[in-house]
Amino acid sequence: MPATGLALSANAAVETDRLIPGRTALVTQSGSLLGTLLSRVQARGLGFSKIVAVGNEADLSVGEIGRMLAADPDTDTILLFLESIRHGPALARFAAAAHDAGKPIIAYLLGRSDPGRAAALSHTGAIVGSDKSADAFFRAHGILRVDHLDALYEAVPLVTGRAPGAFTRSAAVVSTTGGGGAMAADRLGLAGVPVEGLGPPAITRLREAGVPVKEGRIIDVTLAGTRPEIMRAALDGALAETHIGFVLAVIGSSAQFHPELAAEAVAGYATSEKPVAAFIVPHAPETVARLAEAGIAAFTTPESCADAVAALRAWTPPRRAVIAEAPSAAASILANATDDVLDPTSAFALVAALGIAVAPSTIVRPPTELSASPPALPFDFPMAAKALGLAHKTEAGGVILGITDEAALAAALRSLETTFADQAVPLDGILIQPMVAGRGEALLGFRREPGIGPVVVLGAGGVLAELYEDAAIRLAPVDEAEARRMIDEVRGLAPLRGYRNLPRGDLDALAAAIARFSQIAALPVAEAEINPLIVGETGAVAVDALVRRAPPDSGE
To answer: What predicted TM-score, i.e. pTM, was given to this entire model?
Structure first.
């Protein structure tokens, strides 16, 4: 507790001669990183209200400590250094309490790579991974996530005292250095933050006031911007533009050699309605410290700057909870299943019980008795034949499409027998379905992530689902409004949205299917997938389904 000087830790970092008190709290799962963050923050003349290292959370969790900090009158902002998310429900309760108290949470999470994805049964598991699930968790609970360590503490003045939605429009870059401004604008753009310049009327007003601005994406005030009055005029001009929601002041060499002038130009904007921050291009610790003390976020690299600004722009309030209520018929199907991975008939029945249309199908067994004389089927050609017992049928040569008559069907069955006899892969049977036409294919996935809980996934369906990793992920369940936002996020579904005047698919039916499928979170299911879900002009139909039950002790 820096305010009192009380240190209950074996970490050598607390042997420092002074602990600077501040109004930011830090909770870290890494005791050794405590000293790193403490030293970096104190180097700016700033400090913490509380610093807590929880280690492996053998007793108190991050969420439990966090709820105490949410009620702490000496804390305004809370930083998390996480190695993993271990107790998701407790962390969610903490996030809700912090939001209610108006205290932003900024998190840095290790473990971006996820070797466990390779062992996933479904396409969904390979697409999601624990890191993308963590993104969905943070977003759902109103926690800002940053990827650069410097951004974790440099962003504090940017978010303190602000609420989600503080910045939703474009950013403006006001720079005294063309190169520095270009670096900042490029990084912001790569992070998904649009950068726009001034409109012609604003440029005219500034020129008449003696500010040498040019048309363009960057508001370059050149060396004239080293004069505080010129920089302030340019900042005011950018803040007055309705299309601008955030302004970044980029300061060049003057920050190193005239810190008093550089800081003076920006320091007065800490309470601006629209957020204002600074990127200090040279090594200029005095200017950085002056701005931080004034309440202005001062970034020292374009990467950490863009990371923090993108997190601010993506910041949303905690999501309204949606209750998982799977129909009793779906629960009954799962309860009567005997295998960990449901057989196709049971998987299709469960999907149908959730309220999602499924394609009619027939399973033939054993193939050796049927290939010479295909059975009479309750649907017409063209048909599809799919080998059973495989999660990834296409890769194994287990799918034959466009079967047009009985002779072609017999040939398809013989081909599947031969393929799997040669590969010594057991063939459980063959699923035969009518070909289902539509406007496009979607993948619906579900996965229960350790520490985080259930997530639902939407991606472009078919054989390329894993290749592009183009998916929208949310904590499950979701309602139809959230499902529509997921549809808008997936680039591969643009044709269904009418891209370039292509015929639109039934997006209402797709959104309903996503919401209904996400209700599987109420059941003891570890992993489930519909791939593909055929979206037509009207309606959406599942033509393949996979469901794997959760172990009895898998609950949070």
So the answer is: 0.88
